Amino acid sequence: MPKVIAGNWKMHHGPAETSAFFADFHEAADPGRHRVVIFPPALSVSAAKEHAGSVEIGVQNVHWEPSGAYTGELSAEMSASSGASLVLIGHSERRHIFGETDEEVARKVEAVLRADLEPVVCVGETLEQRRGGALAAVLERQVGAVVSALSHAPAFMIAYEPVWAIGTGETATPQDASQAHGLIRRQLAEGGLAGATTPILYGGSVKPGNAKDLLSAPDVDGVLVGGASLSGADFAAIVHAAS
Ligand code: PGA
Predict the structure, then answer these.
(1) Which of 93, 225, 229, 235 has most ligand 1 atoms within 8 Å of its beta carbon, as the pocket-test mutant?
(2) Residues 52 and 38 sit within 8 Å (Cβ to Cβ)
(3) pLDDT tens column, 7-56
(4) Would the pTM of this model clear 0.85, i.e. be above it?
(5) Which residue from 3, 55, 57, 10 is spatially nearest to 166, judged by alpha carbons?
(6) Beta bridge partners of 63
(7) d(Cα 97, Cα 92) in Å, to the nearest integer?
(8) Which among 202, 177, 102 has a CA at the least distance from the CA of 146?
(9) Which of 46, 103, 106, 134 is placed for a possible disulfide with 129 were both Cys, Cβ 3.0 to 4.6 Å?
(10) What are phi and psi of 59, to 5 degrees?
(11) Beta bridge partners of 223
């Protein structure tokens, strides 16, 4: 099965660094049959499109309205016209730093589909929730919130990103990832979605050194990489780990 290797740059890499990244990446990477995606800051989408080659480009967030008086926001429609083809929705930093709710996440999914873009919906539990035995309940709530919006999606992905593993150097074990992905897959199927074939990505401190183990774990269809996607050479090494 081809894997999905996605990089989330967060608030890093303006247009100049974007061009430099792709020069390094293309020198080292061979995406082969795998799907490779980069989510740069929206201001770098044009530069990314110019240099991306076969790499797909997405944005990290959108507002649910197509246009209007929402200073500082951007819409799914304008993301599409700038060349993005995917959108990250509900990343844990959006949920925890910017207070995004499950209801807003669902509205954003609708907006992304209206603009014919592919949503990548992020879900995951905090350490407190995990320790409190609430893993399944949190995933059920977060996935449950988007099932109806996703019911008419031609294509979508889910990214399981345990909050305690993001940017911390703490990685979920391949078994942790498989367990959570299995729960998500079951819930998608119960909601009438194509649970078996939906790509489910793992994210949280994925590095060149642990990518191979994670990518070979059952039910892990790809990875969503933060910090290690900023270096063209490191990200190329993660792509290589999928082969
Ligand atoms: P990280 O981030 O790889 O730096 O932990 C992952 C993410 O937030 O998508």
Answers:
(1) 225
(2) yes
(3) 999 999 999 999 999 999 999 988 888 999 999 999 999 999 999 999 99
(4) yes
(5) 10
(6) 75
(7) 8
(8) 102
(9) 134
(10) -110, 165
(11) 5, 202
167 close to ligand 1 (CB < 6 Angstrom): yes
Q: How far is CA 116 from the centre of its chain?
A: 17
Return phi, psi of residue 207, to 5°. -135, 170
Q: Which pLDDT does position 219 carry in this prediction?
A: 96
Which structure tokens are listed for 210? 């642990």
Rounded Cα gap, residues 148 and 224, in angstroms: 24
Atom of ligand 1 nearest to the CA of 93: 8
Q: Length of the chain in residues, anyone? A: 243
Q: Report whether 156 contacts 170 (CB < 8 A).
A: no
